[in-house]
């Protein structure tokens, strides 16, 4: 039977301790490797975040610079003549850049779907400074998306005035609204309250459309439809004829009949007067002028008031002959005789206007 010796116990304990130290050292090294790997992952994630931020900044800068290139597209589109429209070209792209810098409005981004063909307008070729005209504009949706008539993204028609040098006289006039949504390929007619610039001169009237919250159609690939308009301070007979026709259209009258009516009344003489005391271009008596609230020395106001009251007579009697008789002889005379009064002057007046003489 062997005997236990202390030297053997000491030898075995040293070996176990050595193995323990080796294991501990390996675990410590593995832990440090894990820490280093985690730090590397954090660095990679941070680098990716920086790259993404740089790319987003570049995209934002590209969007901000987009209107300039869109304006170049406008200029390119305008350089292609359209014999069907037979209209003059719009101001240069550089002029539009200056115009947009001078106008305080919210910047709007171009949208590919903002496409329109502005087919025709009834805008006059001459206007009196500061006056308004009711104009019909026919448009066709040539884009890929419908035009909403209402809501935050509604599509409206507007106009801009440019002077003879291409500078902006007015950007964004009175906006006209659609009566209903317009699908791609469909047409619509809008009624616009067109107001002339306050100073005389030669102007370019430019029709444009806008999608609220999105952008002007002219900032996309659609060129504005333009036409020259002469604006005068000095009122000519032709100016007054144009005002009369526009007043009639605005009131819902036949412009041909109303123009012949004013021709019969005064020959478009703004200073005309009659033995009965009627005054001005529409031959309004002082008592009638007071009840209408119109100054007979103002030809534009007189024509507008005459058109509005003629429209009222047409609505009341449902007949132009009776309406003209009421204007000439008074409503009471028409009601008394139950038709056109048997006055020679009134009968000649009605026959001349309705006969076109």
Description:
There is one protein chain. This protein has 357 residues and is α+β, with helices and mostly antiparallel strands. The protein has three domains: 14-64; 69-233, Immunoglobulin-like (Sandwich); 238-354, Lysozyme (Orthogonal Bundle), CATH 1.10.530.10. It is 46% helix and 18% strand. It is built from ten helices and ten strands. The chain has helices at 6-64, 66-78, 93-102, 237-251, 255-266, 286-292, 299-317, 320-329, 331-337, 344-354, and strands spanning 116-121, 126-128, 132-141, 155-163, 168-170, 176-177, 187-195, 201-211, 215-216, 225-232. Strands 2, 4, 5, 6, 8, 9 and 10 form a seven-stranded mixed sheet that branches. A three-stranded antiparallel sheet has the order 1-3-7, covered by helices on one side. β4 and β5 (168-170) form a beta hairpin. Mean pLDDT is 80; it is low at 6-12, 67-101 and 103-111.
